[in-house]
Amino acid sequence: MASDGRRRISLGDIRHEALSETSSTNSECLARARAGDPGNLWVTAERQTGGRGRRGRLWVSERGNLYASLLLIDPAPMERLGSLPLAVAVAVHQAIRSVLPPGGEPLEVKWPNDILIGRKKTCGILVEGEGLPDGRYALIVGIGINVSVMPDNPLYPVTCLRQHASAASPEELFAHLFAAMADVLEIWDQGRGIAEITARWRAIACGVGEKITVNLPDRSISGQFAGIDDNGLLMLDTGAGRIMSIAAGDVFFG
């Protein structure tokens, strides 16, 4: 038990339930949280009928890829939750690295947590949260990884692990993800380990120093990607020495 009364995440008490099909692993986790689940639960599915990405976008979810969501209950004080997506990206990158042969195209993270191989998207991550009636806070980390199927994506070039000589099955990849996530969440330590997480994220970041455009809900802003600050916010150099900090947005290179 942490000093603030919150239970720390450890590998030994993380559960996993594998489903053949569900509407959405994120929705399944949220329903279980509302029903009183204590958290530290992975739900995976071979297929999703209503998978979704950021901003409600459809996430095509046919068999052959990995669809997984992790339910966490009160994983950190609210003021430290902002760094969790970076930790998740580090863990997913570590898991994918484990099943790719050496010497291939660069495996990188596009802010905040898309995983790219050779600048093509192979993984999307959706983090959602909800306050529960009993006062607990449910946070769900949804992860979709293209293992053998590449759904069309009009926003970004896409790829899958099979195109990069990985023979791993979704089940094998999940075993790596299960271990990597437990390891990284322990380092993250309810947000207290943000310095180590940001250092690891920076080491695998894509496009630092390049020109980017960030699409916000109400506008688009272009500038040079100056990296992330110590809280994980994107730093955009818009010129004349002005650095803008951005908490959420879609990043496009070039």
From TrEMBL:
<dbReference type="GO" id="GO:0005524">
    <property type="term" value="F:ATP binding"/>
</dbReference>
<dbReference type="Pfam" id="PF02237">
    <property type="entry name" value="BPL_C"/>
</dbReference>
<dbReference type="InterPro" id="IPR045864">
    <property type="entry name" value="aa-tRNA-synth_II/BPL/LPL"/>
</dbReference>
<dbReference type="InterPro" id="IPR008988">
    <property type="entry name" value="Transcriptional_repressor_C"/>
</dbReference>
<protein>
    <recommendedName>
        <fullName>biotin--[biotin carboxyl-carrier protein] ligase</fullName>
        <ecNumber>6.3.4.15</ecNumber>
    </recommendedName>
</protein>
<dbReference type="GO" id="GO:0004077">
    <property type="term" value="F:biotin--[biotin carboxyl-carrier protein] ligase activity"/>
</dbReference>
<keyword id="KW-0067">ATP-binding</keyword>
<dbReference type="Pfam" id="PF03099">
    <property type="entry name" value="BPL_LplA_LipB"/>
</dbReference>
<dbReference type="InterPro" id="IPR004408">
    <property type="entry name" value="Biotin_CoA_COase_ligase"/>
</dbReference>
<feature type="domain" description="BPL/LPL catalytic">
    <location>
        <begin position="12"/>
        <end position="189"/>
    </location>
</feature>
<keyword id="KW-0547">Nucleotide-binding</keyword>
<keyword id="KW-0092">Biotin</keyword>
<dbReference type="GO" id="GO:0005737">
    <property type="term" value="C:cytoplasm"/>
</dbReference>
<dbReference type="InterPro" id="IPR004143">
    <property type="entry name" value="BPL_LPL_catalytic"/>
</dbReference>
<dbReference type="InterPro" id="IPR003142">
    <property type="entry name" value="BPL_C"/>
</dbReference>
<keyword id="KW-0436">Ligase</keyword>
